[in-house]
Amino acid sequence: MNISINVLSKDQILEIIPLMIEYTEGKTEKTILEARFIEMASQNYECAAMYDGEKIIGVAGMWFMTRHYSGKSMEVDHVYISNKYRRKGLGKRFFDWIYVYAKEKGCNSSELNTYVQNYPSHKFYYNEGYEIYGYHFFKTL
Question: In DSSP terms, which residues pair with 76 in a beta bridge?
Answer without folding.
Answer: 62, 112
